[in-house]
Design goal:
Length: 394
């Protein structure tokens, strides 16, 4: 549902701005364990701002959880609306959680607040969709874990009717690898940077997470061949449109030293790597091939993608299920945020139980790849999947 009380510009742009604060800039306050009384008081403050002007609302399905967005910022609503599957049918039960964004508030310092007890996240004077999405996924994953289901930073690909669960050191590497793998072979993309898993007979199954896929701009650092695909995205955040606006000192120094190429000098309209929080939404029709929204895939392979400086060409190595799960936990998040959870540690036992059950019915492998360039890795991955499919068919 969208409620609009004033006219709001709907033209696309490359930044999400309400006040002169770049989207993605760190909030002045960030609290991840707010008490229920404090959150109630903060929401009252936000409500005063939300009542004054344009207001946009939507209830969406994030895996097994329904979350409601309530905001005064159209651009952020547009990201949310295109990113997640909307819930249209009436439901007697209220949404499981709520995300409120009062970007136009003027009397409070920019801040982000999270209360797991009440299932609420709140942003004041802050309009970064990247942070909003991260916290919404955290909230949904916490609620899903109570149902014995997992939300984790992982990609899933479909090959011959079965799913391949891919984990990596970062969402950018995940997205770059999955996109390149789908372009190299006959696989379809189910998820790029976030996956929902649930127990199934003899293992686990993966579900489609996003309506449109949020691709980190940093994916281009792993595979520059994705540039044209990124340019096709309709909705951008923190994407640079002029070189003279670049403030990425490290990038500028590498370009000046001849160690890197500038996107604008190559004739590109945008640069996706100069700002760390840059992102683009890609509709499923823009991807090489995509699994349908309702498809559920039995996970038959688990792959950990690891970039290593000493590796000159991609290498596939078998790995025990226990070691892969342990390595994935170490490489995708610190001790407070295993499995690359954006904020909080969910129920650890639930995660280990479902992943262990998933691995019990899957081939478990690590793919070591060079730090730059994933094309050969995609080809090797395709051959690996093909050989497993033939062995299974035989």
């Amino acid at each position: 549902m969208m409620t609009e009380t004033t006219n709001t510009a709907l033209s696309p742009g490359v930044n999400t701005l309400v006040r002169p604060r770049p989207a993605g800039e760190a909030a002045e306050r960030l609290e991840t364990d707010v008490s229920a009384p404090k959150m109630k008081a903060l929401l009252k403050v936000a409500e005063q701002t939300l009542r004054r002007g344009a207001r946009f609302e939507q209830t969406s399905r994030l895996g097994p959880v329904r979350l409601r967005l309530d905001t005064d910022h159209y651009r952020l609503y547009q990201f949310w609306h295109e990113n997640w599957f909307a819930v249209h049918e009436p439901c007697a039960e209220p949404p499981g959680g709520r995300v409120s964004v009062a970007a136009g508030i003027e009397d409070e310092p920019a801040g982000a607040y999270y209360c797991g007890r009440t299932g609420e996240a709140l942003f004041l004077g802050f309009n970064s969709y990247a942070l909003c999405r991260s916290w919404a996924l955290t909230l949904a994953a916490e609620l899903a874990a109570r149902q014995g289901r997992l939300g984790l930073s992982a990609a899933t690909l479909e090959a011959e009717g079965a799913g391949v669960l891919v984990m990596a050191q970062s969402p950018a590497l995940l997205a770059a690898f999955a996109l390149q793998a789908a372009r190299s072979g006959q696989m379809r993309i189910q998820n790029l940077t976030w996956t929902w898993l649930e127990p199934a007979s003899g293992g686990a199954q993966s579900l489609r997470a996003e309506r449109s896929f949020l691709v980190p701009g940093a994916a281009l650092a792993h595979e520059r061949g994705l540039q044209e695909l990124m340019r096709a995205g309709r909705v951008h955040e923190n994407v640079l449109s002029r070189r003279d606006a670049c403030v990425n000192r490290s990038c500028l120094e590498q370009v000046d030293a001849g160690q890197a190429q500038c996107a604008f000098e190559e004739g590109q309209d945008y640069c996706y790597v100069s700002r760390p929080a840059s992102a683009v939404l890609l509709h499923e029709g823009m991807l090489p091939a995509c699994a349908g929204p309702e498809e559920v895939l039995p996970v038959r392979r688990m792959l950990l993608v690891s970039t290593e400086a000493q590796v000159r060409e991609p290498q596939l190595e078998k790995m025990s299920a226990a070691e892969l799960i342990s390595r994935a936990q170490q490489s995708t998040g610190d001790i407070r945020a295993p499995w690359c959870m954006p904020l909080l540690q969910p129920v650890r036992k639930v995660y280990r139980k479902v992943l262990t059950q998933c691995a019990s019915a899957a081939e478990t492998t690590v793919l070591k790849v060079p730090e730059r360039g994933l094309r050969e890795a995609g080809d090797l991955f395709d051959r690996w999947c093909s050989s497993l499919c033939k062995a299974h068919a035989g």
